[in-house]
Amino acid sequence: MAQQRSPETEATAIVAPVTASVAQRALKKKKSDVRKSTKQWPTNTAARKPALPLVPQRVDPDPKPTVTETDARLEFAAAAVVAGAAGLVAQLIPHGGTRLMLLMVLIVVGPGAAVMAFAPVRNRLTAWSMAAALSLSASVAPAVLTLWLHVWNPAASLGGLAAASLLTGAVQAVRLTRSGVRWPRPRLTDPDQPPAGRLTRWLPLVTLPAALALWIIAMVRTSASDIGAYGLSSTLGVPFLVALALLGVGFTTELFGRARPLVLTAGLLAVPAIMQATVPIVSGTVEYAWTYKHLGVVELIRDNHHLIDSSDIYQQWPGFFALLAMLSHVSGLDPISFAAWSSLACMLLNALMTAALARQFTANRRVIALTALLAQMSMWVDIGYFSPQGYVYPLMLAFWVIVIRWMTGPPARVGRLNRWLTRDMPERAEPSRATQLRAGAAATVIFAAIVVSHQLTPVMMMVPLVAMAVLGVLRPRLLVVVLGVVLVAFLAPRMGSVSSQYTIFDFNIFANASGNAKSWSTPEQEFSALVARALAIGLWATALFAVWRARRRLGTVLVAALLAYLPITTLAGGSYGGEAIYRVYAFSLPFTALLVATLWAGGKPHRTWYWKIGSGLMAAALMFAGLQGLQGQSRVNVVSRGDITAAEYLYAHAAPDAGIILVAPNFPTKLAANYGSYNKGHVSVDISLVGDPYFTGNINSSRLADLKTYVEAMRYTTNYLVVSDSMDRQTTYFGTLPAGSLTSLTDGLSTSTDWQVFYKAPGVVIYRLVP
């Protein structure tokens, strides 16, 4: 029987549905108003996204490991085991390339993966960037410490790292398995991907292989001797330019279409391959004559097991050199055999770090992918060549990943200036004290590895750190004090060496920013320089426009803007040998790329074909500009095998305590461990006639008497003079000598009784001054 209801109950039954409906509509309207007022990023990456705000993402204040597919600790435990096993197996197999590759797996993955096996970082991109950075930082510690303590033993050091990584990973893998943690399931596709037609689906899968095929064809048809005065890109010809267009169109079609992670990743890997592998494949040698000085330092440490000259600026910052000396010693390979691939390896690491850095600001994978792409294709400064700066650059990016993710937020105390600068900076969940301490410790470890490896990088990092601390954005501020102590403690005893070679604290910011503009003397040099400068200024201006758009809510772009533009202030400290402006560009590029990417890809993902094709051609043009800045001087920068052979002969047979004089600074000097035995008093710089005002612009056979007097005044017991075709190419490209000067000089030297031939081969002659 039906239950009887009171009149009040009847009224409630009639009114309740109407009331609920009204309440639901009111609640929906309220939520809509809240979304419009806060303007937060939607979680669905396929939905419409405004170009701004560009703000650090919220983090879990104290993330707990859970049995979910986002828990990647077991993945890192397995990676630590594999990397540790690779390091141990490497010492059991014969010397060679296989041993080197196994050791590289250990150094790049092992120790960091062991640490990340205990860290519940839920984002895999962030976690892998941390693993690589911590591995590289931890690996340099035993190299430097054993060097300073005179207990150098590379095999034991790498074996200890391998064993520690393997055991730590194995123990943690057992613990996690017993506690119920299972393998994470990587998501290779996105359930929110919009439907697409056949052309949108298949076009990127066709253009990417076609671009790579055309690139390979262009390289096969080119040799190092074919490189023209306008650089390698113009020499590779039309097929290469078509390859750039196909790569750009394919990538942007995918980016503004389905944005499949695997396809975007393939495009991102193709860019550094084309930009950094072309020269080593075509030439087969290590690029840039000045790179060979770094090979000599590595061999010195490898062969002597300790540092020799406390006045040598390279030996005072031994981190990079000691690490590579360990690799060279244990692998049995000379550094010259693998140094040519340094740029490619470093740029691949930089791509990972840049993507992880962008992830701290946005979850929009289109913005993340485009940021990584722009940072790669616009890097006309070869930041990754075989040098300390190539080692520390990805560490610097990883350092900022840590700081932005766990150690930044709106200031607690807001003054008038802070209120304006941090306007609309969203509140973030405060990480626990333990989480901040762990993040601070990781940041300090990475910073210490940078400090012992490079002079300029930690100083440039401190500038935005101090600014963030003053604004109250950095938490805790004590991090600046700790890092400052680390920097000063290492730098103070070495300031004399730095100030003796570089002008510091001259506060002439405009002159230091001019680079080499005053020395442009030929159309070829001017063309490459102008293209590179136009690219840099265009990116800086576009990023500045993004900041201007957010002028009423600067807090949404504050952190990215500080990191993009504050490095410019370091130009007040000096020109760093004329290269300071290039370092400023390289350090600001990831953040300017992020600001530009928010304008380019931060809005509606579904674009017309006009937009996709136009964006692809624009990307291709940017990549060509980056390549022109990077490879426009390849005719000068590529070092011939003949020059390398001549240099090796010189350092193997020249008399000790001799002077080695170059006509022009384009010869691979100091490539052997005994480089300190020559040019004493000038160890860190080459002695070059072109560069000295006494000879620049005027050196030929008529100056032989002046040349003899100049050389004898150095008071070396024996003197050698190097003349080569590469020097002729350099002086012609830069316009530092009239045409035919070196031919005239060579003719005069060959008939002079004061000079005798010490070594002669096609393209290079070394003379010895007769006592």
Automatic annotation (TrEMBL):
The keyword Repeat does not apply. Residues 26-67 are annotated as: Disordered. Keywords: Membrane, Transmembrane, Transmembrane helix. This is Glycosyltransferase RgtA/B/C/D-like domain-containing protein. The keyword Transmembrane applies. The chain crosses the membrane at residues 74-94, 100-119, 131-149, 155-177, 202-221, 227-250, 262-282, 336-358, 391-408, 462-492, 527-548, 554-572, 584-603, 609-627. It comes from Actinoplanes palleronii.
